[in-house]
Amino acid sequence: MKNNWVKKVVPHVIAIVIFAVVSLVFCKPVLEGNVLNQHDIVGWKGAAQNALDVKAKTGKAPLWNTALFSGMPNYQIYMEGKSVLPNLTKIFGLGLPNPANFLFIACICFYILALAMRLNPLTAVLGALAYGFATYNPVILQVGHETKMYAIGFMPLLLAGLLLIFNKRYWIGLAVATLGAYQELMSNHPQINYYFFIIAAFVTIFYLVKWIRQKDFKHIGIAVVLSGIAALVGLGAYYLSYATTKEYTEFTMRGGKAVEIKGDKVINTKTSGLDEDYAFSYSMRMQEPLVLLMPKAVGGASIGDGTTVIGEESKVIEKLSEQGVPAQTAAQLANLPIYWGGMINATEVGTNGPPYVGAIICLLALIGFVIVKGPLKWGLLAATVMGIIMSWGSFFPGVNLFLLHNLPLYNKFRAPSMALVIPQLTLAVMAVITVQKLFFSVDGKDVLKQHFKQILYVMGGLAGLIILIYLGQSYTPGLAETMLTGGGFDKSNPSLYPAVLAGLKADRQSLFGGQLLRTVAFMALLLGVLYFYLKNTLKPAIATVILGLVVFIDLWSVDKKYLPDEMYVPKESGDTMAFAKTPADEQILQDKDPHFRVLNFAEGMGNHTSYYHRSVLGYHAAKLRIYQDVIERYLSSGQPSQELLNALDTKYIITQNQQGQLATIPNPDAYGAAWFVKGLKPEADAASELQAVGSTHLKDTAVVPQAAVATIGAVQADTTARISLTKYTNDEIEYTTTSNTPQFAVFSEVYYPAGWKATIDGKETAIVKTNYFMRGITVPAGKHMVKLAFEPQTVKKGITISYISSILVVILVLGGFGMQWWVDHKTKNTTAA
Questions:
Q1: Pair 107, 19: CB distance under 8 Å
Q2: Among 70, 519, 548, 730, which residue's CB has the most CB atoms within a 10 Å radius?
Q3: What would the DSSP string read from start to end of 714-745?
Q4: Which run of H or of E encompasses 265?
């Protein structure tokens, strides 16, 4: 009995060792003390530094961030909850260093999924390596999309739990589904969560059809209840992040807008969710999802270290040389990116790399969709098609506009190309099901013999489709054309521009042709393995190992182009390089005033300034809508409104000269933390409010909504009135006031009604939206203490629910595994008797 147990465990131990070793070898520089230089992580550190500094001093992380966009909630930057659970993500990652841990998590979770489907361990390892090393994973790790990678990594774990429940392994299914839901949601990437729920929805629908046909209503009830419990408990544990994000989203760019800004004009509008153009940014052309099968189907990457460039052997160089262009000038064009996919416009520069899943994986999945039967196949196929359609975004408007406006919550997300994470999972699952069916099922060879002609037809049909695309697709425009036009090298040059276009088209067609031949070679290899397996020349295990090695080597060779060893830097120099103090920083840090802001023109939308100072700008994917409106109307031009900068208490402005040297310009006219105005300027609507800000002396007059005038009451000018800042922290601000008449105070703080409360001498008072995006309060005559405190009830409620739910996660996971052991043990004893 002991030997049987060892035999069962050894393959899994070997699999874990394989995943750990290949993950570490792929990320070899981390073993030498290096770390990835990730752009988005650097940006996050800049945004989060203020919260980390506050926590270091007080022991508590603040809920409001003062260092970014003049103030915003910390919900999506740095927030702490309460849980009885240990760091399960670290446990799943085996404590491996970043980024090897991400790859390992994706591998081990897919391996668990394969075992849940009762697949052979060899097949499970093949699928796990394919999923873990799918090229999109190193591409997003390159830039630092870590929460996205966690969510991708844990998708198979949640799917495993659902399939266990659907296949009547109820107790272990409940345990795995609860654990999977917890890990998937706690990854805190709602868009990837959303894509997984699309997969789960399609799989569930086709299983329901099967159960209804079989009239297995009892099982339907049990499956629905158990899946619902796992989802609710997982959502409960995630509730703090969910509730705060949901509340915050309504006030951000993703919650819609009240005004439309067109140049100097502002008009009223009413939308929900993202604008169509913004939501559909980073859409793929119709042929572009071929990158799942062919990594350079549209030229590969256009930005980052893995960028595919035209090259010195380019037809562009040849054509320009024929036109008499000097060799040096022509050679400079060899560094232009060759990418011609859809992710290019005035604000997009393409992609860091393709979501390539492996040619063999795609081909195996395609075979599986033909020969495998059952509801899982249909669910995976439907989800795959849906993912591809969604990735087309603006290039397939008929369907995608309908989805944007009708599919619940879908209008909160952008970048349709990200939807290809759906086929990244579904194709890998279908591929391993195919391998299991052909090589390890009792009727595998019979099925292969029966369908071999169909497989040939499918391969031939796919090759034919790619040939038609090769012959018929447009190879323009592309990023190179965009860059050339921006540099003045455009259609106005009648002789050279056509030469460049002709050369680019030839280069791109040649590249696509090479990808076609590459795919045909993989088809031949796969068909050869199947043929020799049919002839008994190859054993099932050998055939699986061959395919596994081909898949892994193929992915490794592609992945390394997008996550090369050169991207790692010494650990000690990572933050030093990104956040090295400039002379401007040193100068500004000498000012100990607790409240002022910095506008860094040299940085633009970055977070270096936020690392050290309270920044007027910054970078975050979900800015407050009212602040974004102010940026678009008044701050995005080269000459922002001085009146507005004063009202923002912008005490320092950093500029950069043509030599790249930074200069710090003091602004002695900044209005300070708060001030009393002499009068009000009521406006009837949001557009009028925003426009009035640009034509009003904000030191003397406050722009307010017409509806708020009655709440504010009479304001009487008092030249002796004073308001002084006495305490300034992230979540609490205090002022003292003195005046002979009632006053209206304007605070240089961003208006956010979901949590900020104001009191005067301990009694709550209304905060008025002022100057479109700031706060205002009516202060009675006399001496008073005014306090602003950020105390969102959502956070308090969220912490309680999440804490209780974390206890339920422990109970369901441990209880589920324990009950499954008891049921299996009881069944075994009954069978033995």
A1: yes
A2: 70
A3: -----TT-EEEEEEE-SSEEEEEEEESS-EEE
A4: strand 265-268
Per the listing, tokens 């046909």 go with 213
Per-position DSSP letters for 637-656, written without gaps between them: SSS--HHHHHHTTEEEEEEE
d(CA 653, CA 349): 29
Residue 486: predicted pLDDT: 52
Question: From its phi and psi, is residue 33 left (phi > 0), alpha (psi between -120 and 50) or beta?
Answer: left
Q: What is the pLDDT of residue 122?
A: 96
Residue 307 pLDDT: 67
Compute the chain's Rg from CA coordinates: 30
What does DSSP assign to residue 253? Answer: G
Question: 224 vs 108, 215, 231, 258, 668, CA distance in Å?
Answer: 27, 15, 10, 40, 65
Give the C-alpha separation, 237 to 561, whole Å. 38
C-alpha 601: how far from its chain's center? 27
Burial 755-783 (b: 16+ CB within 10 A, else e): bbebbbeeeebebbbbbbbbbbbbbeeee
- pLDDT tens digit sequence for 771-820: 999 999 999 999 999 999 999 999 999 999 999 999 999 999 999 999 99
Helix (H, G, I), strand (E, B) or coil at 267: strand
CA distances from 461 to 66, 288, 526, 612 (A): 58, 18, 16, 59
Of 767, 788, 789, nearest in space to 712 by CA: 767
Supply the DSSP string of 202-240, one letter for each residue: HHHHHHHHHHHHHT-HHHHHHHHHHHHHHHHHHHHHTHH
Partners of 260 in the β-ladder: 267
Query: Any idea what the Cα angle at residue 700 is, between residues 64 and 768, rounded to 5°?
Result: 40
- Whole-number Å distance between alpha carbons of 116 and 109: 11
Distances (CA, A) of 809 to 88, 177, 188: 12, 10, 17
Does residue 640 have a cis peptide bond before it, meaning omega lies within 30 degrees of 0?
no
pLDDT at residue number 491: 53
Following CA atoms 425, 431, 434, 439 in sequence, which dihedral angle do they give, to the nearest 10 degrees? Answer: -130
**Using one digit for the tens of pLDDT, what is the confidence trace for 445-483?**
999 999 999 999 999 999 999 999 999 998 877 766 666
DSSP structure class, residue 8: H
Sites in the chain below the pLDDT cut of 50: 1
pLDDT at site 263: 82
**Which tokens in the block code for residue 85?**
């659970």
Strand 597-600 versus strand 650-656 pairing type: parallel
- Within its chain, how far is the Cα of 110 from the centroid? 21
Quick one: pLDDT at residue 641? 85
Query: What tokens does 676 get?
Result: 């009393």
Q: How far lies 828's CA from each of 170, 173, 395, 539, 816, in Å?
A: 17, 19, 57, 33, 18
In Å, how far are 704, 732, 749, 750 from 746, measured between CA atoms? 11, 16, 9, 11
Residue 146, Cβ neighbours under 10 Å: how many?
Answer: 21
Angle, in degrees to the nearest 10, between helices 146-166 and 170-186: 160
The token pair that represents 231 in the structure block: 């989802």
Residue 558: the pLDDT is 95
Q: Is 774 helix (H, G, I), strand (E, B) or coil?
A: strand
